[in-house]
What does this fold into?
Amino acid sequence: MANSTTLEIALNAICSVVLEKKSLSAFNFPKDYQDLSLTKSLVFGTIRFYHELNDIVTKLLKHPIEKDNLDVHCLLLLGTYQLLYSNVATHAAIFETVNVVHNINKPWAKGLVNAILREVDRQKETLQTQVHYSHPSWLVKKIKNNYPDQFEQIFTNNNTQAPMSIRVHPNYNLKDYQSELSALGIDAYQVDVAPQALVLKEAVSVFKLSNFDKGACYVQDCSAQLSAYLLNPKEGELILDACCAPGGKSTHLSELAPNSKIIALDSDEERLKRVAENIKRFGIKNIALSQGNAQVQDWWDGQLFDKILLDAPCSATGVIRRHPDIKLLRKPKDISALVELQAKILDNLWQMLKSGGTLLYATCSILKAENENQIIQFLQNHPDADEIKINIGWGIKTPVGKQQLPSHEFDGFYYAKIRKAP
It folds into this structure.
């Protein structure tokens, strides 16, 4: 059962996203709190279904709640989520949610919260049968326009919690490691297209994973694990991983070609520290960190790269199931700005690639403007660029590259592989 302290922590996290427009990843959950997993599930669930919950609550309110009391509105969303989507008993959900008004010094709201939640409970059966995509209207329109035949699949998967996937280090036999996890009570299964991947039946703390601290595995979605294989690094090559943080793809490139030289570039100093931590955990020697912006050249020493991986800044619309706050924080104007930035980075990095070299363009977006349309435009502007077809049993064919839509094993992801003419 969620007590009032659990709900108050959850409410603070929800308010930080809804009212302060901060990322969920920036919220400091109390690490040692005994009901942390329940608290997080309530937060992520409420944010995941925010648009539906907000429509329900707004309709039931006789008058909009004043600006200074919008934390009460967020509390109503949290209570409504418990009633419609959680396993919390109805009486407990209402009682404990009502009690939170005292914790936030809004005792006047007790009757309001009680009345609204009881009305939600009365209408529960009807509300649970209504179709609601629970995405902002601009994104619903854009996804429907991009994928007229698949938009329902996208919305359903975006509103479903993603599984935990790991990449097992090639020093460990995949089947043996799977057996080790099984012996620890952790069930996992393999994915054909990603040869180092295991998908866990249930998420666990990374410290429960066998030899995690010794670099046995890395938490990474199966779609993201394809980057290194598609780039196909070779020993002795000079490789750039642009926009590299937190280092999952850099370390994977190193695993496949430990005698290559990898430059891991990112603009964010704090995020580069995470890359450094991962490099240390894996005991990697062939990755050099570089801080700088991928759309300029002031960090570059002039040496041309054999291969470049560009994990481009994007809308992250393919990983909404992992980061539901994207639906509240991302705005329509962001897309055009990102498309412009991606084009600048592509143009800049292309100058750093050797003749005959390969650039792999990747995003965790499902929007065509950032993906196939971006690369079509790039190929039109660069006569020395040719597409290398991606022939793997993953994703759907697009005019250029391949697009994966969100599914159980895979985040929404796009890849395009481009060769520079010799």
